[in-house]
Design a protein that fits this description.
The structure is a homodimer. Chain A is α/β, with parallel strands linked by helices. Chain A is 46% helix and 17% strand.
């Protein structure tokens, strides 16, 4: 597969993106096109030459003179900066020169670029961003996580169809369990939106377990969590905030009770699995589902490992021709 | 103050409720009316006699022959079981024989009983349940947490007015910071509901800090979080689920790496503050705001300490005449 990587996207670009590309090229037979200012990127690549012999790797550079910042207005930036690393990466996919594009940059701008250059799949009402979240027994994906704040039941229905296929093809789960985020397990519990969405989703050919509650997400009750983007975004950020709070309170406890320091050398062993579990760099980016081409959006704080994993996810989505599968499923259900 | 306590409500009733009443009576000058089957309650009270000399305490029993179970249909149960401990407790307030009632039982039934016997305050569109949540620097309250799943902007506006007063009078915060739960801090971020609610809330005489994001809740950015009950319920249960997940993963880590056991004797010191922080029994119940009388609903798993704290919260709300304050504020803003 050929993956276009926005080399200038993210807080740690281009260092993390270029190193991520190197790691991805070493670990696979994918070709990586690094998109960004040619001189800067080749200099960055050279840093890894001694260690990895980068000239032997299947990495190309596509020149792009502009950069879209993390805080720029998404649609405006994409419209105005046609030669930005993000726009050029998206164009490579639109022109059939790459099979997927990956960006760790401005999420809204990545969405805008995908919509502008790749367009929506026919019949898809709203593309959705689907993010991974750690659970007790693995990982689940949540769709939507912020692309759509006011949803109709038909939108949630399509999110379920698309996220189910992503989970199957890219995460390799044979029959993903799909749940609708609500406030009680009974089909009669929910708000106007979820009650109607429930009826639609249960008619589709999915492994739909029905409504799930907030606590069922970390409990790993389902593989795919469906909700509108307003709730998805709040839930994800709230989760981050809680983990941060618990860490802060534990640190405070350690600071105030020096006797507890004696536990530290041994505590590490118990905590290393937890650390790995909640390490977003293992997840490899969030797909934008419903555009006509593969687009993966990574966390702005991504390090090289996260970039590599995002490239691998994008390659898997392209290999399994996820876009065609989504097209067929959307056409079949014909909403 | 005279507090009617549903002695039969909750998973640990009547043991926890009766012991909680004893602790509350010892620790204050409030009179507690234990509502439930007279014989059962007096037997339960006698268990504490040796230790606390209960006959000297200001505790009374009001007989009620029926009990509403945790899983009964709320409105139906309240309508049919007029002599249930919950209904009789609510009636005591309606008849002016108690200043507030407290139940650890079926949340929906407690709401139904409050609405049936106390009625809504004139002008209140929807009563809201407001729950406490731990933050890095203390506690915040979230309103609504599940009473209202489909809200209008005016509902959120009234939740803000009512929760602000509860926070002021019962939690003792002079100028509570009020935030609207959304997906970005800018006033232009949000869904249809929150965008309109933002405009209403900012016109009121509140210390309104504007939109907050999910992560701002545990960060303690505000004292009062406003959202519809669908999101409030999902967020609260999700928070429970995450704490549970982290605990499980840490336990698993300890189990798999016996060397980490060496940390345990010292670890306790660092964790005891965290434990206290997330201990719901400190919070003392969730007020039902907007009914014409004070009603506090506690966690079904409440122990005696949680019952005592709920009784104290109810007493504070009654002492400060929260109901009259809410009446005046609602009349003033006249929605």
């Amino acid at each position: 597969m050929i993956i276009a990587l926005d080399a200038m996207g993210g807080d740690n670009a281009p260092e993390a993106t270029v190193e991520g590309a190197v790691l991805a090229a070493i670990g696979s037979n994918h070709k990586i096109i690094l998109v960004g200012p040619e001189k800067l990127i080749s200099q960055e690549l050279l840093k890894h030459h001694k260690r990895y012999n980068v000239t032997s790797l299947d990495i190309e550079i596509a020149n792009a003179t502009e950069v879209i910042g993390m805080d720029e207005h998404p649609a405006k930036a994409v419209r105005q900066k046609k030669d930005s690393s993000l726009s050029v990466a998206a164009k490579l996919v639109a022109d059939g020169k790459a099979d997927a594009f990956v960006s760790m940059g401005n999420t809204g701008a990545a969405m805008a670029a995908a919509l502008f250059y790749l367009k929506r799949i026919d019949g898809v009402l709203r593309p959705a961003i689907s993010t991974s979240f750690p659970t007790v027994n693995g990982t689940c994906i949540i769709a939507d996580m912020g692309a759509n704040v006011d949803c109709k039941p038909e939108h949630l229905f399509q999110f379920a169809i698309m996220a189910n296929l992503f989970c199957k093809r890219v995460m390799g789960i044979v029959k993903p369990k799909v749940g609708l985020l609500s406030i009680g397990e009974e089909p009669t519990k929910g708000n106007e939106l979820t009650l109607k969405a429930f009826d639609l989703i249960q008619k589709a050919n999915l492994n739909f377990v029905g409504n799930i509650e907030g606590r069922d997400i970390p409990r790993g009750k389902v593989d795919v969590v469906i909700c509108d983007g307003f709730i998805g975004n709040i839930v994800l950020k709230f989760g981050e905030g809680i983990a941060e709070m618990m860490l802060k309170l534990v640190k405070k406890g350690f600071k105030e009770h020096p006797i507890s320091w004696a536990s530290l050398p041994f505590l590490w062993f118990a905590l290393k699995d937890l650390k790995k579990k909640v390490d977003y760099s293992e997840f490899g980016g969030a797909p934008l589902l419903g555009v006509d081409g593969v687009c993966l959006i990574g966390h702005g704080r991504s390090d090289a490992k996260a970039v590599k994993n995002a490239v691998f996810s994008a390659a898997r989505a392209a290999e399994h021709d996820l876009t065609t599968e989504i097209k067929e499923a959307i056409a079949k259900y014909g909403i």
